[in-house]
Amino acid sequence: MSRASPQVQNISVLGATGSIGSSTLDVIGQHPDRYRVFALTAHTRIDELKTLCLQHRPRFAVVGEESHAQRLQGDLRAAGLATVVLAGPQGLCEVAAHPQVDAVMAAIVGAAGLESVMAAAVAGKKILLANKEALVMSGALLMSAVREHGAQLLPIDSEHNAIFQCLPCNYAEGLAPVGVRRILLTASGGPFRKSSYAELEQVTPAQACAHPNWSMGQKISVDSASMMNKGLELIEACWLFAARPEQVEVVIHPQSVIHSLVDYVDGSVLAQLGNPDMRTPIAHAMAWPERIASGVTPLDLCALARMDFIAPDLQRFACLRLAIESAQAGGAAPIVLNAANEIAVAAFLREQIRFTHIPQMIEDVLNLGIQGQIDSLGGVVEIDQQARQQAQAWLKKQSITAGKRA
Ligand code: NDP
Ligand code: MG
User: Fold this and answer.
1) Given its phi and psi angles, is residue 280 left (phi above 0), alpha (psi -120 to 50 degrees) or beta?
2) What's the start-to-end Cα distance of the chain, in Å?
3) Would you state the pLDDT for residue 365?
4) Cα–Cα–Cα angle for 321, 319, 280, rounded to 5 degrees
5) What confidence tens digit (pLDDT) does each residue in 129-147 have?
6) 157 in ligand 1 pocket by Cβ < 6 Å?
7) Given ligand 1 and candidates 50, 92, 109, 159, which is best to mutate, with the most ligand atoms within 8 Å of its CB?
8) Domains of the chain, CATH where assigned
9) Does the Cβ of 372 fall within 6 Å of ligand 1?
């Protein structure tokens, strides 16, 4: 049955060359009557972006550097496309806030996504939020910008999308008034769920990136392996659902079929289930409050046969403990946690530090007690920069010590 009055929505896909970007373009491609790609952005994968531009013919494309923008602009013009190519953070903000944009898929990884998410919020857009780091860094600012400018924030992270689906629509004032006892945030436990600390010391980037259930970008794959991802998600849940950290409980569920649960005071526990494929939360958020097909295989419960649930081990997975402590501390702590983690993960991927150094570095940087103003984007960025400098200094010290040992 066709819809009564189809209205095509213009979508800017920020981080189009990434894992979420690609799943988003897949869902958009299944519904050309509903969605049109307005802008596509990439950072370094310019050739991939060019292919996507030829396929989706967007109004705008954005890349990291001016020289790349000029080359891409020439290539697209030669191919007969009218796409305008922009560069840098300013370009990202422009396509996030453009008057003709209806929805913004925020799928840039890390702190680099913050400014464009804020620009979309201030422009009152429908924001499909995958970039959890933006909320971790500036939850209070972002949530108030969303309220003040009439934007809509819909969670793409599968757990938060599940929680959103299990909550009543009037949860914004807090969980207690709507009868919610707690949120149960599920975690797969990642590839090292059963590894000993001694084994964790030896893991390689390739092993850390080989997630058992999900295919994702490198940074979030390492975060999942260290369980920092679940810690960032706990902070994300607190902001999205007006929850206190102690109202969010992490449960390991290795099959990744239950994407999270909501426990009500009457004893009801609501869950959202589905095969682990990001096209489900993406399609859900894109069409909300309607439902559209996503291309995801229907769940076969009999083939699944069993589901396990285990409490997390905060000693082996110290990143989760550090994130919970940062959520409780509030203020600058989550910004410092996120910045130090980004530096540590990048260093681990370059094989500069061991996997077990990741929480050690984050804890040392957190213990410096970096403070600052968190009531403006400038203040948040300043804390982020300070934490990055300290994390870099930690790395330098570490390599000197390792050099002396060698
Ligand atoms: P990827 O690494 O696959 O993609 C990241 C995207 O961000 C790429 O398009 C990349 O461009 C772009 N990018 C990287 N750095 C910059 C920068 N400095 N400025 C502008 N753009 C940049 O990541 P994912 O798709 O896996 O994750 C994206 C976000 O979604 C993350 O915040 C992650 O936590 C979240 N998320 C991801 C899930 C998943 O299943 N993948 C699930 C839930 C949340 P290029 O490649 O061209 O350099
Ligand atoms: Mg998630």
Assistant:
1) alpha
2) 69
3) 98
4) 100
5) 999 999 999 999 999 999 9
6) yes
7) 109
8) 9-155 (3.40.50.720), 157-328 (no CATH), 330-406 (1.10.1740.10)
9) no
